[in-house]
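Possible race condition, two jobs.
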Amino acid sequence: MENVNIHKTAIIQPGAKLSPGVSVGPYSVIDSEVSLGDNARVGTHCVITGQTKIGQNCKIYTGAVIGSAPQDKKYSADDNVFLNIGENNVIREYVTINPGTTEGGSKTVIGDNNLIMAYSHIAHDCVIGNKCIMANGATLGGHVTLEDNAMIGGLSAVHQFTRLGRLCIVGGCSKVVQDVAPFSMCDGHPAKTITINMVGLRRAQFDAEVIKILRKAFKILFRSGLSKKHALQQITEELPMCAELEHLVFFVKTSERGLSN
């Protein structure tokens, strides 16, 4: 453990892998099967445990508990399960993240450049993409998927097995029980699709023609009164196909919980 900065009160268990530039703050515990990438920073009173791998340049703030046992009755202490966290993630105060379960693929996976704000929870077998934001107190049940650039408002809860599509935004205090379409704004209790995420699309510098196509697709999907099957048929027959529309159509076709609409 050369070129690391470990506070004298921190506990680093034998076997833990700490890369160059890692710092660990007062009273934090790093267990034996944990791996921390280059320049990862762990704050005060954190616990990182289990078979947990954290990539370079991650910042973990006070009181976070990363890699603790899944909150699943089927979980056994003998299960061989994992938590993989990518690079450049910010994990704020008192966040909790669980590894996978054997029935769910044994792995929770978090990508790169995500912001997970204070008191958020990521349950077992979740898959988080890149550049996602979970505001304070946001909660993901087990087996939830967040595609890239998804944003969840504070104090919102997402039901297990639900998917949140690329560049969607969920309003604060929402109850999400069905899939949230890519590029959408969703809000409510239960959450419903309000409109297209115009601000997000513009900030992501989407082409104006692509935005126009997506707006037409949303009107057909959510305002025409057509069934999912017939709405998709009309979209594919009437609208010029682009990569973003292909992604939206595929997401809707593969939805098992139905869409929040």
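Job #2 (started ~2 s after job #1):
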Amino acid sequence: MVGEGFNGLRHNSFCMKKASVLCAFISCLLFAYCSKEPSALKQTPFVFNLPPGVESPRVSADNAITMEKVALGKMLFFDPILSKDSTIACASCHIQSLGFTDNNRLSLGVFDSIGFRNALTLTNVAYNNLFFWDGGVPSLELQVIAPIESPFEMNNALDSVIARLTRHPYYSNRFVELFGKPVDKVSFTQSIASFERTLVSFNSPFDRNYYYNEPSLTAAQVRGQELFFSTRTNCSSCHSLPNFTNNGFANNGLYDVYADMGRRRVTVRFNDDALFKIPTLRNIARTAPYMHDGSLPNLAAVISHYNSGGSNHINKSSLIKPLNLTVQEQSDLLAFLESLTDEEFINNSSFMP
């Protein structure tokens, strides 16, 4: 009896241990299941519609562009929730009808603050390799952060933006659906960058003539085109095809002495003093005023500046010299620049809120 009782006790103890282990295993499974991040929604790849021979825009290896991310990024682009006082959005300084610029000399921020540079166009921004007038940012995703944290623009902190979106009923759910996790800095910047990559413009009268042989240019625009691509003006040396920029930096002799150090602000090299990004000329007729400081009010003034040869800054490009264009030639050159306006792009409902 004593032996039987001991064996029974040992059996019960073994069963209890088995049950305990089984319960612990089930608990682990339940914890893993409950704590596991939800699966990301299967998304639809975005397809660019480009002329023959034009390469697709740069896309980050870790940020495949999809229709769903583009839609989310567009919502964020137009939402003032990103700024400190919720009064301005990305779209406040990048207006579609103005070629995704504004009509101010210098960008305006929250609390009536004034920036120190003119807003660059977002036309074909995905073809850039460096961003902003001084090239201080190397990717479109990182570019998203700068205006948010600039005291002259949105004057906010990225952490504060993420906290706001986390509390927002739509955004908090949508980020989990698309990325399989709550909104964070990576998914936030990837979304806006995805939308900005779709701002592609290749359907101007120039494009229809150049890529598709359509008779879409006027006689004045044809004459202006010949001047633009000639060695006499050297315009295309800096503003080369397909995006009418070589993505470089140059000094164009705007001043003898500059208040803005330009590229030198990033590199600290004297040879980069007063060098600025060479912007695309696409939709240029819509993006006045011009230059890094918005000091030239219209295209006629820009052409007049280059025709004069500019001032004599020590770093001025050797390509900038007096052109001696006649009044008619200046008019023709202006007509050609107007042929770079893509009305379909300017009025594309896909870019509207």
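Strands lie at 249-250, 276-277.
Logs attached separately.
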